[in-house]
Structures are given as C-alpha cells and as structure tokens.
Amino acid sequence: MIRIAAVVEGYGDVNAVPALIARTGELLGLPIIAPNPIRAGEWKSIRATGVFERYLELAYRRGWDRILVLLDLEDLCSATEGGDALARVTSWAADRHVIVHVVFFVREYESIFLACIDDIVGGDTPVVANPEAFRDAKGQLKKLTGRRYKETQDQEAYSKIIRLDILVKRSRSYRKLVKDLSGMSYEQIDAAF
Prior knowledge:
Blueprint: E1 2-8, H1 11-28, E2 32-33, E3 38-39, H2 43-46, H3 51-60, E4 66-72, H4 78-92, E5 99-105, H5 111-115, H6 117-121, H7 137-145, H8 151-161, H9 164-170, H10 172-182, H11 186-192
Parallel strand pairs: 1-2, 1-3, 1-4, 4-5
C-alpha cells in the first residue's frame, strides 16, 4: 500500500482528494491511499518564502511514502508556478528521503467536473470544450446542473462518479496527476487510455 500525505486547499478537498487518489490508484492498478489531507489554503498564500516548506515538513513528519501537493492555480501560470514549486521541493528534499509531487489544477479542482459533466448530469449533455479555461468552474457547474454547487458535499460525490479513463483524456491537470502517481510518460498514458 502506498500512503500519500496530501496537502490540499480547502474543506471540500479534504474528502474529495482521498476519493480521487484511491480511484486513480484503482485505475492504474496501484494500491494508493491519501487519508486525512492537510488543509493549507490557497497556493497564492502558501507560496510565500518558508510557508510552502512548512507544509512540506508537516507532511513529511507523517512518515508516509510520498507527499502530494494538490492545489488550485486560479489565474497563475502553470509553467511558472510549477517550475518554482519544483525548485523549492528539490531544495527542501535534498537531505530527506521522500518522493514529492506537486500537481496544480489549472484554475480550479472543479474543472475536472466540467471535463466530465456528462457523468454528472447524464443524458446527452454536451462535453465542455477546454474545461480548464473557465475561471468560475463552480458557476459553470451551477448552470449545467441547474442547482447550486456545494463544495463540501458535491466535490467528494462528483469525484466518486466521474469516469477517470475519460477524464485522463480531457483534463491536462488530471493527466499530470496520473503521470506523477504512475511514473508513466504522457506517451505511455496516451497508449494506455
């Protein structure tokens, strides 16, 4: 069993991310769990000097197999922020023996639900083109489902019903998560799914 110490953003993520990670493990044939994530707040806040490293240290002290930082990126550039986070992780992990993955959801976690809106709404719901382009994914979910999106309830429920084999084709952020957890290249992921 691979135990992951996850660092997440909000209250909804605390339940949704373990569900997504466990289901991703099943998809990949890997026994992965991420119980009791550490809620850290927004990347904009924790990227401050020393703050990010404190959360890494807190996760590291759990003594688990890996650390996964899984946060929304909002309007920040994934290439810039990803490069900065990787450099900081490399520096922090220099004298520690732990694998650390940083995965940013472009815009919001909820973009993965837009990518698989047909699983949530059902029927002949059209696929949302470029779901990671929406700044207000929660608002788009409200429009498409016809009801208010409740993060602490819906995020976990939707994470449990979306088809991950389809999501890996529709979401760059999720593909990055699959790449990091599996060790596969993007070409191998394309071939597998």
